[in-house]
Automatic annotation (TrEMBL):
Entry GO MF terms: carbohydrate derivative binding; glutamine-fructose-6-phosphate transaminase (isomerizing) activity
Record key words, sorted: Aminotransferase, Cytoplasm, Glutamine amidotransferase, Repeat, Transferase
Subunit architecture: Homodimer.
Function of the protein: Catalyzes the first step in hexosamine metabolism, converting fructose-6P into glucosamine-6P using glutamine as a nitrogen source.
Natural source organism: Thioclava pacifica DSM 10166
Keyword Repeat in record: yes
Reactions this protein catalyses: D-fructose 6-phosphate + L-glutamine = D-glucosamine 6-phosphate + L-glutamate
EC category name: transferase
Protein name as annotated: Glutamine--fructose-6-phosphate aminotransferase [isomerizing]
Secretion signal, residue range per the UniProt entry: none
Length: 604
């Protein structure tokens, strides 16, 4: 979602602000803007659409100054127009904002009573108007910002800049992350460390409720109660913040290709030669229920893991989408373990679900890609998936890395509960260790898939079918395809086909069947035959054995390496992702930043 950058520098900041915003493009946005203070004078430039529109504008209407803030906006309140783009300004105040001010209607009413009328449809403008109102009443910038903060409800990250103040930015965090970067006589603020990576590797993360007065001399940080707070300065690994395409046409292609290495790294950490390696306080022996909660692709990773926890540990396991779970307020017990899966670690619904659980279950566990994220910090135990920065909006390497960590957890649960014998455990760990090699082999399908994708790109609707743990993968395959190619796609459990979706089948509907030759294979083949009997266009992804039994009569086949049954979804994620990727490329869509989507969904 929206991205924030702020610089109190020693050089002209406009180019630096735009460059930093480029690093935040991956979060998704539909307008952008910057504001600077030059010799005490505040000014701003904003443009709708891609950042090059803002860059073009700055060529014709440059903005001087060594202090500035910038923003990429993903529209929530009000359309993507220049007027609604950030920074929002009122008199001496400019502000950029991530998140939502939930009580902005009440605040607007309060402003109206004071005779102040907003000019935009946004919630953010309210912040600028309030701050100005307090300054008009005699407060200085610092006091006015703090007074404004006291009035705001919701989840937000804010950064203010002021007319007449060349050496001041005010930052605040409540619900949306914000990082302060330290330079030599320069200071920076970013909505994540990626934005700051070229400028500094010395970062201080604001904590929930913190606000900070930032000058070139440093940052004074205060907690929610207004007390001075000491927050650690950390050195971040700049390698981890690399966001280069590395010769690939798209980040998504790079991230798909990275998966063998990502899984090898995660295996080294979680499954070293000595065996399962999870924190000692993650103990499944006294648990009677597991709840897995997430959104989108991460939810499908949970749905696969349900099969594993039930099979390996024989423990009841529920899965839920966070946005439903949080408002359903389900009964919980002190013998439940709740697992929250999130690439970004900032997804608003998942975070809210975690907060709902935190007092009421035995333990909360976060499976995240960003170890400094809110979800990682608020859970009792955080397990990093070690996938490195994921830039493509469509999650790929995070999905398979989440699956790997969840598989190791399920095996640990089986062992803790005495449900898995040594030989089976050894066979499963061996199978997991073979994954990097197998994923590498599957990457060889990229070229044939690119050819098939030319036909798939013509389709209006595409169905994905799978059984057992391949069912959630069918859901994930459909999600991936629809989000980046904009082709309508649905995933179904193969057995559900004749309960409705078979009505859709005709010559024009490709049906993608993900089916390793496992114990349910024959059943899936029967469902596939039903599709072919109705002239459906079947694409079967299976291993050599599966294809020799069932490949005849299909429209196309993809030969996959053999894989131990439970872990097939990790391997088959590769063709699912490649099908989506190449179809989107064939259609010419914006693969890395598909329309309307944001990478880190920090609003509900
Ligand atoms: C789809 C995708 C989304 C995310 C979802 C949750 O490709 O990326 O469905 O999986 O928005 O995001 P995180 O994992 O950051 O909580």
């Amino acid at each position: 979602m929206c991205g924030i950058i702020g610089v109190l520098g020693n050089h002209e900041v406009s180019p630096l602000l735009v460059e930093s915003l480029k690093r935040l493009e991956y979060r998704g946005y539909d307008s952008a803007g910057i504001a600077t203070v030059n010799n005490g004078k505040l000014d701003r430039r904003r443009a709708v659409g891609k950042l090059w529109n803002l860059s073009d504008l700055l060529v014709h209407e440059p903005l001087a100054g060594k202090s500035g803030i910038g923003h990429t906006r993903w529209a929530t309140h009000g359309a993507a127009t220049e007027g609604n783009a950030h920074p929002h300004r009122s008199g001496p105040v400019a502000v950029v904002h991530n998140g939502i001010i939930e009580n902005f209607r009440e605040l607007r009413a309060e402003l109206a009573e004071a005779g102040i009328t907003p000019e935009t449809q946004t919630d953010t403008e309210t912040v600028a108007l309030l701050t100005r109102m307090f300054m008009d009443r005699g407060m200085d910038a610092r006091a006015a910002a703090v007074e404004t903060l006291g009035k705001l409800e919701g989840a937000f990250a804010l950064l203010w800049l002021f007319d007449g103040e060349d050496d001041l930015m005010i930052a605040a965090r409540k619900g949306s992350p914000l990082a302060i970067g330290h330079g030599d006589g320069e200071m920076f603020v970013g909505s994540d460390a990626i934005a700051l990576a070229p400028m500094t590797d010395r970062i201080t993360y604001l904590e929930e409720g913190d606000y900070a007065f930032i000058t070139r001399a440093g940052a004074e940080i205060f907690d929610a109660a207004g007390r001075r707070a000491n927050r650690d300065e950390q050195r971040i690994d700049l390698g981890q913040a690399q966001v280069e395409k590395g010769g690939y046409k798209h980040f998504m292609a790079k991230e798909i290709a990275e998966q063998p290495v990502v899984l090898a790294d995660a295996l080294r950490h979680y499954l070293p030669a000595t065996g399962l390696n999870l924190p000692a306080d993650l103990d499944f022996s006294n648990i009677d229920r597991i709840i897995l909660i997430a959104c989108g692709t991460a939810h499908y990773a949970c749905a696969v893991a349900k099969y594993w926890f039930e099979e390996f540990a024989r423990i009841p396991c529920e899965i839920d989408v966070a946005s439903e779970f949080r408002y359903r307020e389900p009964p919980l017990s002190e013998r439940s373990l709740a697992i929250f899966v999130s690439q970004s670690g900032e997804t608003a619904d998942t975070l809210a679900a975690l907060r709902y659980c935190s007092e009421n279950v035995a333990k909360t566990v976060a499976v995240v890609n960003v170890p400094s994220s809110s979800i990682a910090r608020e859970a009792d135990i955080a397990l990093p998936i070690l996938a490195g920065v994921e830039v493509g909006v469509a999650s790929t390497k995070a999905f398979t890395a989440q699956l790997l960590v969840l598989a190791v957890m399920a095996l640990q649960a089986g062992r803790d509960r005495g449900q898995i014998d040594d030989a089976t455990l050894a066979a499963h760990t061996e199978a997991l260790r073979s994954l990097p090699g197998l994923l590498n082999q599957a990457m060889g399908l990229s070229e044939p898939i690119a050819k098939l994708a030319e036909s798939l790109a013509e389709a209006q609707d595409i169905l994905f079918l799978g059984r057992g743990p391949m069912y959630p993968l069918a859901l994930e395959g459909a999600l991936k395809l629809k989000e980046i190619s904009y082709i309508h796609a649905e995933g179904y459990a193969s057995g559900e086909l004749k309960h409705g979706p078979i009505a859709l089948i005709d010559r024009s509907v490709p049906v993608i069947v993900m089916a390793p030759h496992d114990r349910l294979f024959d059943k899936t083949v029967s469902n596939m035959q039903e599709v072919m009997a109705r002239h459906g266009m079947v694409l079967l992804a299976s291993d050599a054995k599966g294809l020799s039994v069932a490949g005849d009569g299909t429209w196309a086949t993809l030969q996959m390496p053999e894989i131990a049954e439970p872990f097939a979804p990790i391997l088959y994620a590769i063709p699912a992702q490649l099908l989506a990727y190449h179809t989107a490329v064939a259609k010419g869509t914006d693969v890395d930043q598909p329309r309307n989507l944001a990478k880190s969904v920090t609003v509900e």
